[in-house]
Amino acid sequence: MGKIISIANQKGGVGKTTTSVNLGACLAYIGKKVLLVDIDPQGNATSGAGIDKGEVQQCIYDVLVDDVDIKDVIKPTEVERLYSVPATIQLAGAEIELVPTISREVRLKRALETIKEEYDFIIIDCPPSLGLLTINALTASDAVLIPVQCEYYALEGLSQLLNTVRLVQKHLNHDLMIDGVLLTMLDARTNLGIQVIDEVKKYFQDKVYRTIIPRNVRLSEAPSHGEPIIIYDSKSRGAEVYLDLAKEVVVNG
Ligand code: ADP
Ligand code: MG
C-alpha cells in the first residue's frame, strides 16, 4: 500500500517544491512508483516535473472542486515511474470555492484513496499557507515532511504549523505522523548553518532527517529546464543528496 507524504511549511522559499520534485524523482529512480501531486496554485512542482502547464486540460482543481476522477488528471513524466497530478493557476480559486462545500477537508483524501494502492509513494507539494489546500493534504497523508531552511529565524512560524498538524491529528486524521524535519539550503561556508542545525536538532531530536540538503546551484537551475535534478545533472551534489534522502525515506518505511 502506498505511503502518502505531504511536504508542508507555510513559509515560502524553504525548499518544499524542490524537495517534492526531487524526492519524488529520486524515489522513482530507485525503483518506486511515485505520484507527485501539486496542490500549490503556482504549479511549480508541475512545471518542475516537466509538464507544460499550458497543455494541461484538467488539474487538481477539477478533482477537488468538480469531483473529476483523479485517474483522468494523472500524467506521466519524463522520469520512468514518476507520474504527476498537475496544478494550474485555476487552483487559486479553490481555497475560497471549497469553503461552503460538503466535506471540504477530505476531498483530496477521498480522491487519493481510489489510487493509493497503485503507487509506492504519493508526494504532495503544499502551498505556502495553512489554508484548506494544506489541510486537505495533511488530512490525506500518512506523514508530513517539513523542510526548514538553514537560515536565521529557521524555527519561526513552525509552532503555527505544528499546531495545525495537531488539529488535523485530533479532528481529521488520527494517523498523521510528523516523519521529519528536513534541513535545506545549508551553506557550509558559514557557522550560521551549523548553529541552525544544532537548534533544530535540539527541538525536534530524532525527528530530523540524517540527510541535510546543501545549497547547490544545479538544484536551482533544474526547474527552468523542466527536469528533476537526477535527469538535469545526475552527477551533481544536489542529485546525490536527494538520492540519499530517497533512500532514507524508504528505510524509514
Ligand atoms: P518553496 O516551494 O518552499 O517555496 P522552493 O523549493 O521553490 O521553495 O525553493 C525556493 C527557491 O530556492 C527556488 O528558486 C529553488 O530553486 C531554490 N532552491 C531550493 N533548494 C535549493 C538548494 N538546495 N540549493 C539551491 N537553491 C535551492
Ligand atoms: Mg513551492
Residue share in β-strands = 5-15%
In quaternary terms, these chains amount to single chain
Number of helices: 11
Number of strands: 7
Characterize the overall form: globular
Question: Major sheet: size, sense and barrel closure?
Answer: 7 strands, mixed
Number of domains as seen in the coordinates:
1
Bound molecules: adenosine-5'-diphosphate, magnesium ion
**CATH class category label:** Alpha Beta
- Give the SSE string: EHEHHEEHHEHEHEHHHH
Q: Order of strands in the sheet with the most strands? A: 3-4-2-5-1-6-7
**Helix percentage:** 25-40%
SSE-based structural type: alpha/beta
Written description of the protein model:
By secondary structure, this protein is α/β, with parallel strands linked by helices. It has a single domain (3-252), classed as Rossmann fold. 39% of the residues lie in helices and 14% in strands. It has 11 helices and 7 strands. It has helices at residues 16-29, 44-48, 60-66, 94-97, 107-113, 132-140, 158-171, 191-204, 217-221, 229-232, 237-252, and strands spanning 3-7, 34-38, 75-76, 82-85, 121-125, 143-149, 177-184. A 7-stranded mixed beta sheet has the order 3-4-2-5-1-6-7, sandwiched between helices. Helix 1 (16-29) packs across helix 11 and helix 5 runs parallel beside helix 6. The longest helix has 16 residues, at 237-252. The radius of gyration is 17 Å and the shape is globular. The model has no long low-confidence stretch (mean pLDDT 96). Belongs to the ParA family. InterPro entries: AAA_dom, DNA_Partitioning_ATPase, P-loop_NTPase.
